[in-house]
Task: inverse folding
């Protein structure tokens, strides 16, 4: 059995969230006038374009995004009967053994998003791939028996770590600043199989272990 998958990306999701649609969805679950008034003030405090947009990084934006996409989740599961479906915020994956099913779903998904949530899919990112090739999702590549960091991410981490080491050796940054960056990269890669890159990061840290805070 050959498994296929498609990763979907919603075009400019946070910039495109419609305030009126979001408030209508909140009103379906909340009947407290004071709470709704507060939520409306939070939502209307930011506009990318008139009546649209959520600020990136806000805790409320993450919550609002899941509320906004909840009806889409139910549509995918109940109406399209998609058994293998994963969504994180505005990115989602569908898997199936039938390529025609995935191709047909693209049309239905795009229509539902447009009509109900005023969103659109990236039209230039409609590639159906084999599962054994790995799913590029949420910054990593999910393979059948392991998770690896994206190649371009590993390259960027190595280059930036090497540059930070040079900056430390030149006295431009502190040892603590370098250590924080290395720890952040190692934390990011903690759940992936990226042995060579992790080894390089540990080597950078080892070179500064016995050195003073600043040079």
Result:
């Amino acid at each position: 059995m050959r498994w296929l998958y498609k990763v979907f990306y919603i075009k400019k999701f946070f910039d495109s969230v419609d305030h009126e649609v979001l408030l209508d969805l909140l009103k379906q679950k909340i009947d407290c006038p004071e709470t709704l008034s507060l939520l409306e003030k939070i939502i209307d405090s930011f506009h990318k374009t008139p009546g649209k947009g959520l600020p990136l990084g806000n805790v409320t934006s993450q919550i609002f995004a899941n509320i906004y996409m909840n009806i889409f989740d139910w549509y995918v599961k109940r109406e399209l009967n998609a058994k293998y479906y994963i969504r994180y915020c505005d990115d989602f994956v569908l898997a199936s053994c039938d390529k025609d099913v995935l191709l047909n779903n693209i049309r239905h998904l795009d229509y539902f998003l447009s009509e109900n949530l005023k969103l659109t899919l990236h039209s230039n990112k409609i590639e159906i791939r084999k599962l054994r090739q790995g799913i590029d999702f949420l910054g990593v590549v999910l393979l059948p028996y392991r998770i690896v960091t994206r190649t371009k991410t590993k390259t960027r981490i190595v280059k930036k770590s090497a540059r930070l080491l040079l900056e430390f050796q030149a006295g431009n940054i502190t040892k603590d600043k370098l250590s924080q960056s290395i720890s952040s990269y190692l934390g990011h890669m903690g759940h992936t199989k990226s042995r060579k890159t992790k080894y390089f990061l540990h080597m950078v840290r080892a070179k500064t272990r016995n050195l003073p805070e600043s040079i």
